[in-house]
Structure formats: structure tokens, C-alpha cells
Amino acid sequence: MTKLPFKINLTNKTAVITGAGGVICSHLAKTVAECGAKVALLDLNEDAVRICAEEIVKNGGTAKPYCADVLNRESLENARKRILNDFGTCDILINGAGGNNPKATTDNEYASYDDAEKDIKTFFDLDASGVEFVFNLNFLGTLLPSQTFAKDMVGKSGCCILNISSMNAYTPLTKIPAYSGAKAAVSNFTQWLAVHFSRIGIRVNAIAPGFFSTKQNQNLLWNADGTPTARTGKILAATPMGRFGTVDDLTGATLFLLSDEAAAFVTGICIPVDGGFSSYSGV
Ligand code: NAD
User: Fold this and answer.
1) In the list 49, 202, 230, 281, which could disulfide-bond 41, CB 3.0-4.6 Å?
2) Which atom of ligand 1 is found nearest the CA of 183?
3) Cα(59) to centroid(ligand 1), Å
């Protein structure tokens, strides 16, 4: 069970959540299930979504796992057909699959004159395939599921899409140029799609989580022996509230944006849930 700050009524709604095997979206899946939605959990990681769906069902909710690749139209279409059969058409889409890749990450924050003599991955060494992987996963991995599932939202009322952006979208973080650019693209696309769908009643919004310690950023935040990296120290110093976020911190903003009543006139926004990170200049 998750700790809900308040409840919204999602009874009779079908929620499709990508990346639902991950830390953040497995939590969001449990959250919407507790509000009464039938939840379709999509992920490449079949075991992770099966375990999460089982937990939701054990707690009295309705959920099913679907193995699907957000970068593959055919795989998404297969999942869509199965979901149509199991739960009916999609009302809520949460685009949660995303992440970075070490091949698109520089070892150092700042370039130095003698970098060429060191055994490090510099900006000049970044692999195009790594950059492409990160852009595809975050941007195309948001666009393709939106195409697949929003098709069934046309003509219905009370439908919405929630994307997951990041602090990187506001100001890029050091070392991860591809992830920063890709999340900026996700925020931009959120606005674009909100305008595009505004006359057909589909709201499109995003949340931008601040810093959460999860699988995808584990190596950047923690040393192998479990001690915090220098980057963790910098993050906490730049987060006025002085701590990492927890998944429970995301619940309120998510439920607000998914609520037809509370957010009826809200589309195209991105809510930072960041302990003040995006407002702090560092001084
Ligand atoms: P996570 O790695 O725990 O979860 C991501 C999930 O996406 C995984 O279960 C993975 O199997 C799945 N996935 C990856 N590629 C896929 C594909 N092609 N098709 C289907 N599923 C795929 O990460 P998380 O921290 O829970 O992140 C969730 C979202 O939040 C991501 O978009 C991430 O970029 C974003 N985000 C995370 C943080 C953070 O601090 N953790 C901060 C801001 C934004």
C-alpha cells in the first residue's frame, strides 16, 4: 500500500503505465490502483511488472503486467490489443520508461588541457550509439506510446497523459549531455502535445522529479562500498530541503495532474517535485 496524501476517483478508468517495473513508476502504478483504476503495467522487465501487478492485486486492486518495448511500435500495438481485451481503452497514460546510459556520460565534469593523456571518457569519446540510445529511450519512448494509446482517447472524455521530465530539462547537469537534452525534449513535447490535443479534450502534463536515488543513477550517486559520491554531496547542497526525494513525494503532484476535477483547466505544464532544487541559484 502507498501513503496517499489525498484520493481521487479513478474508478472505471484504465491507466497504462510504461516503465512500471521501475522504482518511480511501480509506485505510481500502486498509487493509481489505490484510486480505483485498472492498471496496465508495461516494461521490458517482465519479472518486475509481474511482481508489481501481483502486489497490487494482493492489496485489492486491478492490474496486469505486459512485456512491451516503448521503442517498438509492434510491441506497443500488441500490448494495446491485449489491454483493450483485458481492460478496455486507455484513459490515462503515464510515460515513465526512461533513463541514461554510461556510453553517453563523461567521466569528468570539466574538460582539462591534459585530458588526452588520461585514461578517461571525455566529451570527445562519447559514443554516438549511446547518445542515440538515450535520446530514443526518453523522447521516442514517450512519443510512440502516446501515439499508440492516445488514439483510443480520441472521442472519450476525461483522458490525460503524464510524462516524466527531470531537473535536467531546466538546466543541464554535468556529465550527462544526452539525458539532459532528451529530457528537455520531453518537456518541450509535453507542451507541444498539450496544444495539439487541446481541442479534443486530452490533457498532457509532466512532473519533473528532483533527485531520487534509484537504479538508473545508482553509479553516479553511490560508490561501490555504499559511501556517497562527491556528486551526492553537491546534489544535497543544491537541494534547499537537504535530502533526496522519496517516491511518496511524487504522489500529490501526480494525482493532481491526473484529476479531471482538480486539473480540468491544466494542460502543458511540468511540475517540479524537487525540494527547491530548480529555484536555488546556489547562493
Ligand atoms: P528505473 O530504472 O527504476 O525505471 C525505468 C524502467 O523503465 C525500468 O523498469 C526499465 O526496465 C524500463 N524500461 C527501460 N527501457 C524500456 C523500454 N525500451 N521499454 C519499456 N520499458 C523500458 O528508473 P526510475 O528512476 O524509476 O525512473 C523513471 C522515470 O523517471 C524515467 O523516465 C527517469 O528518467 C525519470 N526520472 C528519474 C529521476 C531519479 O532521480 N530517479 C529523476 C528525474 C526523472
Assistant:
1) 49
2) 34
3) 24
Q: pTM above the 0.85 mark?
A: yes
For each of the chain's 283 residues, which pLDDT tens digit applies?
777 999 999 999 999 999 999 999 999 999 999 999 999 999 999 999 999 999 999 999 999 999 999 999 999 999 999 999 999 999 999 999 999 999 999 999 999 999 999 999 999 999 999 999 999 999 999 999 999 999 999 999 999 999 999 999 999 999 999 999 999 999 999 999 999 999 999 999 999 999 998 877 788 899 999 999 998 999 999 999 999 999 999 999 999 999 999 999 999 999 999 999 999 999 9
- Cα(10) to ligand 1 centroid in Å equals 24
Say how many Å lie between the CA of residue 225 and the centre of ligand 1.
24
Q: Which of 66, 110, 179, 280 is catalytic?
A: 179
Contact 19, 12 (CB under 8 A): no
* 179 a catalytic residue: yes
Task: Look at ligand 1, atom 40, and give the residue with the nearest C-alpha.
Answer: 212
| Environment class of 110 (CB within 10 Å of its CB; exposed 0-12, middle 13-18, buried 19+) | exposed
Domains and CATH numbers, the chain: 14-210+245-272 (3.40.50.720)
Cα separation, 34 vs 130, in Å, equals 37
Q: Is the CB of 164 under 6 A from ligand 1?
A: yes
